[in-house]
Structures are given as structure tokens and as C-alpha cells.
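This is your field. Have a critical look at the following sequence-structure pair:

***
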Amino acid sequence: MERVHNDGRDKKGIRSYTHSKKEKRNLARLELEKHIESHIEEAIAEKQVKVYLQPNVRGLTQRVCGAEALSRWIDPKYGMIYPGDFISVLEKTLKIHLLDLYVFREICKNLGERLERKETVFPISLNFSRLDFNIGDFLDQLESIVEQYHVPKNLLHIEVTESVVMHNEGYMKYVVKKLHELGYQVWMDDFGSGYSSLNLLKEFEFDTFKIDMRFLSDMGKKSLIIIYSILYMAKEIGIHTVAEGVETEEQFRFLKHAGCERMQGYYFGRPEPMENWLSDLIEKNGVESRKEDYLFDQVGLVNIISPTPFVLDRLDDSPNIYGFETVIPIAVCSETGGKICHLNFTEPYRDNLLDLGYAGTHDFQDALNNRKVLLAEKIRDIMMLARDSMEVESMDFISSGKHCHLQARLVTSMDECFIYLIRIDVLTNNRVFRKIKDMNDTIRTLYSVYDMVILLNLRSDTLLPVYMCELFDRIEESDNLSAEINKYVYKNVHPEDKEHCRAFLNPQDMWERLKDSEEGFLLSYFRSRNKHGKFVWKRFVLVRSYDIGDEEKVVLGVHALSMDKLSILLQESKSFFSEDFNEESEGALDFFK
């Protein structure tokens, strides 16, 4: 370097400086890089590199469901060196595998020790560089470490960044396939940061992808639509989701209602030394059990913002996307130990509950858990029926003077924990959801009296359930009226009453018998099974429909007899009974007396 005069000018009169600020920064950077390159083995051997954990929480519950392993280098000379400083240097110098194997070993060792001591554990996700997989025996080294510490593979999730996969798609397809064969879950990190994300989802079988939360940095309309679209797409193709970088209450609430399964970020907790094992957050929020992990992973793929949320098998031949502001009043509910809890719900579901006079989902939830509420017992019955049938089951009920329709389907279960989809439509408010165009004032008056109301069309030989409140004594829709009635009688009616009941419900002469009845209806009593399989007395009523037209329609009403109704029944005239059923009717009244 040329000598510089005291006035700052060289021999030619041009001003110069020993080093500019930029040059000083560059020199400092070069010195740090050389230090990193030459001291990484020493730092690992002396455990200057520390493993940290950042919590991963379940969106539905905020319980800790995992963590991401991160590294910090606490150097004697430079102090704290962050990954942004040393990761790129180690990749450039082809030494990144030393760090990644070290972190993997430390995690496995810690997990193994905690398992041996029967302490709390949860899955850990670990980042790997694309250069790691260029080492011929890298996967063998991972396997050796896992076997050494006896760690189950379901506690170790392998993260690869989008850029890693894009660098060599052909080879990385083999790597992802091999990792799956070995029993690991493979996650795509930083989804959305590159330009080929969608193509990678089509070509690779990832278990989970982590969404780059830079999309939500401004919470603008476009950002929200993008995130909604990503979450919608993930559920439709069966990939789990994690949002990383969540920092605010607003972001958390949006992501939860949009259906994001897991989240991590400063809002939940900063990275902590592995030795802490997130103890403070676990004490505050709790940690997810293996059973809950399984259950909520199943629930995570349910798309409640879909136009077809009850279709649990995604990727059908004709997917439909109508937008994200769903009009479907639907909720995800759990039942554990008999207690029902709302996990998530749509705005229309909450609005319908408000319309029915509840203060919100919490108020309705309290009602469902009150065993003295008759409606709660009916809803629990339909949930149990859905659990047994594994199909969509439904029932009608009246609340606040409004006719409602409820549907339930089991999503998943383990031990004594069950998770359902529940949909509640207020039919009185929305004609689209009216079950039957033939519903009229005559039928509506029966709703508050009968457990089951059936519309029989004698001319077309069809049977249509209009109102189903009693769930275990039901008649199915049919275009063979006689066959369905015979099936119902055979399955439900007491052996001594079967013959009389078949005759009472015989569609061949039903219309003539009704026309001959002065009261305009026929009434009789038969013993039929209740939900416990016991025979109880039930009242059967056939009422002639007075619809305009020449169709021969009859309304059948059935309900179990309670003690409250006995005094009324005893006052009824025996003339209400048809002569053909007088003997049976006498027996019924004698029984009540």
C-alpha cells in the first residue's frame, strides 16, 4: 500500500483512506468466515455449538405438539454466532454435514435419555442441507445414530427446503422415497419462497409443508387469500401444514379459523436451549399426547371451508372450489370421557346458534354437556349412531320455535376419544335446506308431539321420513312401501304385536280404512324397541293428508309413551280404536292401568 501524507492526499493529490467502513466490514466478514471454517470441528468437539428448540403448537388447542431443532454457536472469541452467519460458510466449504449430523445426534441422545427416564417427549423436526445427501453413507449414518439411542422414527421429522429439492429433483425424489421407506416423515420447509412450489407438491410425496409467513406480514387481503388458498389446497391433497413465523394474536386467530394445523413463532415462544425442553411453555399450555397427535392429524385434513366438508376422502374426480367464505354451518367437535368440546367452527355455525338463542358456541357446548337437557341427549344419540355406522347421520329438532336439521359424522377416534363433524341448519330460515316440499301445517303440528313422522304415498308406493327424532326406531326412505314397513315391523316390534302392527300399517287397505274413519285418523298401540333394546309401548297414528290433488298420502306418527302422557291416554275414548284392533287396544289400556 502506498504511503499516505498527513493531509490525507497521495503524491498525485488524490484523497484516500487506510480502509473504508465497507472494506472494514468485508475484512471482518472474511475473518469470521475463516474462523468458522477452521474451528467448526473444534466447536463441535467442545460443544460450543448448542442445540435449541423452538416450540411447535397445535392450532386447535395451543398444546405443544413438537419442536424444531436449531443451532447456536457460542464462540470464545466472537460470542454468539447465529445460523445466518455460519450455515452458508459451512455449505460453501462442504462442512455442513458435520453440523447437521452433530445436531441430529444430540437430539437423538436427548430423546433416548428422556424416553429411558419416562419423561415427556414430542416429535422434533431437523433441517438438512442438500449437500448432506451428496455424502454416500449419510442415510446410513442417520440410521446408526437412531439405533444407538433407540429413538422411534415417529419422533424425528426430516425437513428439506424448497431450494434443496429444486437443486436436483431427480436425486431428491429418490432421497425422499428412501427416507419414507426408512420410516421418517419428510417436511418441505419454506413453502412458497420459490417459484416451483406447486410443481414440487405434484411431483413429491411430502407429509407436511411449512408455510413461509412472509405472506402474512401485512395481513392484507391478497395475503389472506393466498394463505387460505394454500391451506385449502393442502387439505384437498392430504398434506399437513405448519405456519412458521407467527408473531401476533391476529395471525394466530386467522390461521386457526383457516384450518392451519400447527404453528410456530415468537407468539408462542422463542428458541430455548434443548436442556430446558420447553418446560415453561409445557407447564402453561400442556403437551400433546401420542393419542392426541394421531387424532388431530386426522382432523387436520378435514376441510371445513370446503363446499363438501362431509366428504372425508379428498382428491375425488370432480373437485369443486367455490370460494373461501363458506355458507356451511359446520363445526369440529370432540367427545372425551363423555364431555363434548368445540375445536373449530365456521361463522355460519356460530350465527345459527345465536339465532337459536344461545350466547355462542360455549353456551351451546354447556347445554350439550348438561345431561338433564333432552335435546342434548338426542344429539348425543345421533353422534353415537354416526360413530357406529361410520356414515353421515341426521335428526330434526325444534329450538326456539324453529325447525332445525342436524348432521353428524365421525372423523376419527382412539380409545375413548371421538372427533365429529357437526352441521346445524335452521330450516325455518332457509328454504334451500327444506327437506320436503310436501311439508305443510298439518305435519308441523305433529313435530312437538311425535318422535317420528313419515309421509306415505300409497299411490306411488313410496315412503319418506319427514321428521326423525327417535334415532333407534327409524324407517328408511324407500320406493317399496310394503317391504320397508315389513322390515321395520320385523326389526322393532314385539313378537306378540307383529301381526297386528302389520295389519295396522298395511298400505293395501289403509286409504279405505282412513276414509271410513269418522275422526279422519287411525290410532293404535304396539310394543317396540327403544334405544336400549327394551320393548316399550308406543302410539302409532295414521292421518289422512288433505293436500290438493288426487294423490293418496298418509302421515304416520310414532312416539314412545311417557308417564306424563298416561293420564291423557286414560281419558281417551275407546272409540278411537279401530274395531279390527280392539283386542290389542284393550290390552294396552289394561297395561297402563
